[in-house]
Amino acid sequence: xxxxxxxxxxxxxxxxxxxxxxxxxxxxxxxxxxxxxxxxxxxxxxxxxxxxxxxxxxxxxxxxxxxxxxxxxxxxxxxxxxxxxxxxxxxxxxxxxxxxxxxxxxxxxxxxxxxxxxxxxxxxxxxxxxxxxxxxxxxxxxxxxxxxxxxxxxxxxxxxxxxxxxxxxxxxxxxxxxxxxxxxxxxxxxxxxxxxxxxxxxxxxxxx
Length: 208
Known about the structure:
Elongation Factor Tu (Ef-tu), domain 3, 2 domains, six-stranded antiparallel beta barrel, 4 helices
């Protein structure tokens, strides 16, 4: 479990194809971040929960399955790309964002970026299947970053749009600041929205 508050930026050192088509990625991270990472720990990499392997003082590796490569942006990773990093939540730690599982629900795309005072408004498109889980003033994780949804609208039958505001700190300390219009991002819906929707489905099915 994570909070969506990014702790460090990492950099992809290598993407190594493995037998069967999955990959092992090597990520460089500051020594301060790696200091208490242990073999087998969960680390969110741009919003995807991965298991830390082959540790060093400034680097860790992680295996990425075919399913994860297919459903997230990790399938497009290249050496030199920046990734958002967050270690798993510890008992007693402050929860400043929202509960994030690291299980990506879909891939979105940056539609537009516009200045709003000192922050920026970012518009995204997302698969229509996620629309029922995204609400104004609700939470969403984008590339593992906990953000508040400002507005939601319909684009067409295949997708919908939503907007968030990014403050200068977020732009400077996450990989979102390096993205441009058209970039793809990992999306994770709010856990509460997920379970409320599931409960509603069960109630509707039992009433029929």
